[in-house]
What we know:
Elements: H1 16-19, E1 37-42, H2 49-59, E2 62-67, H3 76-86, E3 92-95, H4 108-111, E4 116-119, E5 123-124, E6 134-135, H5 146-162, E7 169-170, H6 184-187, H7 190-203, E8 206-210, H8 218-226, E9 231-234, H9 246-254
Parallel strand pairs: 1-2, 2-3, 3-4, 4-7, 7-8, 8-9
Antiparallel strand pairs: 5-6
Helix pairs in contact: 5-7
Amino acid sequence: MRRRTFLKGSGIAGGLLTALPLSRSFAAPAGDEFPLMDLHVHLTGNFTIDQVMEISKKTNVQFGIMVNPGGSVSDDAGLRGFIESLKPYPVYCGLQPMSPGWSRSFAPETVKQLDYVLMDAQTIPNGNGYRETLRIWNFDTYVDDPQKFMDTYMAHILEVINNDEPLNIFGWPLFLPVCIARDYYVLWTGDRMEKIIAALKRKNLAVEINDLAHTPHERFINMAKENGLKFTFGSDTRDQKAGRLDFCKYVAKKCNLKKDDFFLPKRILKRA
């Protein structure tokens, strides 16, 4: 199941039902004081770069287009082809690996042509007592022991963060599989969050505020901000919902995030 369909049949997304009141309506801040950038958008055969550009013109949101290693982007030639395909457009170009070890497929000079690398920790080897590889965005993820799962999940998160491979943004922070999302605030203890933030700070990584999953919550964002971490907005969309960012704008406003609190790719984009 691809992430764009992980909520099918469910009203829960990680902390969606626990991190925010169900009656909350998101209002865009009056005069955005932070950059409107959606750095986590994927293209498909039915959602093209030209459609992204139309959304950008209508909303004034700048976009970063992501690709996952694999398939046609499994070597230098494929990654260079992806980068070249976006050069005619005023968008950033990013890579979203799924598992540590991804960089063995690409030369360092090729990776340096990207604007950023974003990685999350949602693919967890031996993630439960049945030694299954869990893809925790899937609705049917099976967790047999929540506390043991959290220990395994934390170890994987720290492996992703502390890995020596190129990385700029930590994506989908604090996301939990649907089956244990009701215990969001119990499982995400202060100690666990502090360990993640300390690791992110050591590696100087930005934190993605994810509009699809509505994570992380205000407490984590404020803790990260107090530690000097930067943030990004990401919708992780593959359709016309790209760039909406309602949750991102709401929680950024509530946490008083300003332009200086955000990770900005170095390359300057020209408007179309």
